[in-house]
Structure formats: C-alpha cells, structure tokens
Amino acid sequence: MYDYIKGLLTKITAKHIVVEASGIGFAIQVANPYRFSGQVNQPVQIYTHQVIREDAHLLFGFASEAEKDVFLRLISVSGIGPTTALAIIAVDDNDGLVRAIESKNITYLTKFPKVGKKTAQQMILDLEGKFAIEAVDVDSSAMDSTTTSENEALDEAMEAMEALGYRATELKKVKKFFEGTQDTAENYIKQALKMLMK
C-alpha cells in the first residue's frame, strides 16, 4: 500500500523508528533502528512494506529499495516472517547470504535467529538461482550517529537485537565481550551480528 514515507524522523526505539508525515507519526519497524541516530529531527525517506494482521497493521521500513527487495524475497519463503527477515537483513551480509543459498550452506543459514534446518532448506529451494542481489545500498547519511554513554548504547543495542529474535544466552556472551568498551548502539549491533554469524 505504501511504497515509501517521506517525513521527519522524530523518534528511535529498539524496535522501530517514528517518521512524522503530514501530521501523522508512522511507527516503522527497521532492521537496525540506531543506524538512523544521526538523522533525528531531520527529513528522511523510508521505503516501506505493510503487513496486515487480524490484530495489527504493521509497517516495515528500509533505507533503500534494494534492501526492501531482499526483505520481500525472504518473506516469500515459507517459514520466514517479517521479523526473521529483518534479523537476516540486519546482519548486512547479503553477499554471504547469496553465497550460502547458492552453495546450499545450511550451517550458515541456521545461524540466523528462528531459522532452523527445515527453513534453511526451504530458503535454498525457493531462492536458489533467483536471488541475484547486489549489496544493499545503505544510505550513508543514515550511518552518521553520535556516541552515547557506553552502558546506554550497549543496552540499546542488546534490546534491539532481542527484538530481532536473538536469544538471551547469545546476547549475554556478546554483552560480556563488549564490557568496558565505548561505542555507538549502531556499531555494537553491527559488530555483535558479525560475531554471532561466525
């Protein structure tokens, strides 16, 4: 229904961002909300996909059309819902994703949260040879973020990863690794996702 929403980025939470357009605040779920930290109170254009359920109307957002295309291909696979697709996109390794699908690397695919062996096999069956995607073009202006206090940034990162479906046991190990460091929530998320995919 909505191809994109252009408006003012007014709020960032662990699960979503809020974009105000024409006096309406749209809550949009994105893969890594904190990558938009440098754009608070600035105009943004977010590509969107709407999911309508019995109990909710949800908007999922993307920094580019390429990222949206990856999401749409992923949710076309039986067993992959929007939240799981966002978690896969958040890893930001689409080359690795395509290689895993083309080489039938089930071990790699099952490292994503909520992706078991059966779902990984279904991904290969449904997407092999059809997933010729280029690296997602992330809006570089969305990547400008300001540093917050280390504990707050790390807590925000862990909360965002929990929203993507990662287990508490996984997050505990990751959080322990970053203790005593100082970085942005966005960078913590990026590094943690890379660690969990090894």
TrEMBL record:
Q: Domain of life, per the record?
A: Bacteria
One Pfam family it belongs to: RuvA_C
Q: Which SMART domains match?
A: HhH1 (SM00278)
Q: What is known of its domains?
A: Has three domains with a flexible linker between the domains II and III and assumes an 'L' shape. Domain III is highly mobile and contacts RuvB.
Example GO molecular function: hydrolase activity
Q: What is this protein called?
A: Holliday junction branch migration complex subunit RuvA
Family statement drawn from the similarity comment of this UniProt entry: Belongs to the RuvA family.
Sorted alphabetically, which InterPro entries does this protein's record hold? DNA_helicase_Holl-junc_RuvA_I (IPR013849), Hlx-hairpin-Hlx_DNA-bd_motif (IPR003583), NA-bd_OB-fold (IPR012340), RuvA (IPR000085), RuvA_2-like (IPR010994), RuvA_C (IPR011114), RuvA_C_sf (IPR036267)
Q: What are the start and end residues of every segment in region (Domain III)?
A: 149-198
Q: What are the subcellular locations of this protein?
A: Cytoplasm
Provide the residue span(s) of the region labelled Domain II: 64-141
Q: Which HAMAP family match?
A: DNA_HJ_migration_RuvA (MF_00031)
Look up keyword 4Fe-4S and say if it applies. no
Keyword DNA damage present in the record's keywords: the answer is yes
